Amino acid sequence: MEPVHKVRSWNAALRAIRGALDRGVTPTVGPWRRELEGELRITLDARRELGPDYDSELTERFVRQLEAAIERRIEELWREHERRRRRATLGKGLTLLLVLTAAVPLTLVAGLTAGAQGIGVVWLALLALVVLAGLLHRY
Q1: Nearest-angstrom CA–CA distance, 65 and 59
Q2: I need a labelling partner for 83 at 20 to 30 A (CA). Which of 55, 75, 97, 109 fits?
Q3: Are 26 and 36 in contact (CB under 8 A)?
Q4: Which tens digit of pLDDT belongs to each residue from 61-87?
Q5: C-alpha distance from residue 40 to each of 29, 43, 60, 92, 123 (Å)
Q6: Over 90: is that where the pLDDT of 2 sits?
Q7: What's the number of CA atoms in the CB half-sphere (13 Å) around residue 82?
Q8: CB-based burial label for 25 (10 Å; 0-12, 13-18, 19+)
Q9: CA-based max dimension of the chain
Q10: Element (H, E) at 107
Q11: Quick check: 122 and 110 in contact, CB under 8 A?
Q12: Per-residue DSSP letters for 31-42?
């Protein structure tokens, strides 16, 4: 079976992987990174023991593990993004419900006491509250 990822030179692949690990490609260091570093060490030890005859198999194994780690990280980031989006949506909905619930009595009181100017001030304040809440609940 032909490997999916062909590596022209073991040393080039090794330099690229080490460079990526040294640069700290992502700002967060999680257990997935320690797991990959451990897998890379195991792969390098196996390469030393088995020799260059098994380079393509070892590389293919490590690439599959790397792809799985990347997919897990993407899934983790996507779940976090969705959680924040749902929380922001809930906050916006609650704010609008509060504003609409308060709008009727405030408009009534403002209309009876200050007339059209009072209604205008109340609605401008409610509008400002909605805009402010929208800015605060951004994700």
Answers
A1: 10
A2: 97
A3: no
A4: 888 888 888 888 888 888 888 888 787
A5: 16, 5, 12, 46, 62
A6: no
A7: 6
A8: exposed
A9: 90
A10: helix 55-114
A11: yes
A12: HHHHHHHHHHHH
Residue with tokens 């797991």: 35
Token pair for 108: 């009534």
| pTM score over 0.70 | no
DSSP three-state, residue 1: coil
Extract the tokens encoding 124: 């401008």
For the record, the structure tokens of 38 come out as 């451990």
Assess whether pLDDT exceeds 50 at residue 54.
Answer: yes
Residues making up the chain, counted from first to last: 139
Higher pLDDT, 4 or 42: 42
Question: Cα(58)–Cα(64) distance, rounded to whole angstroms?
Answer: 10
Q: Read off the tokens for 46.
A: 């196996």
**Token pair recorded at residue 19:** 């460079």
Distance CA 63, CA 50 (A): 18
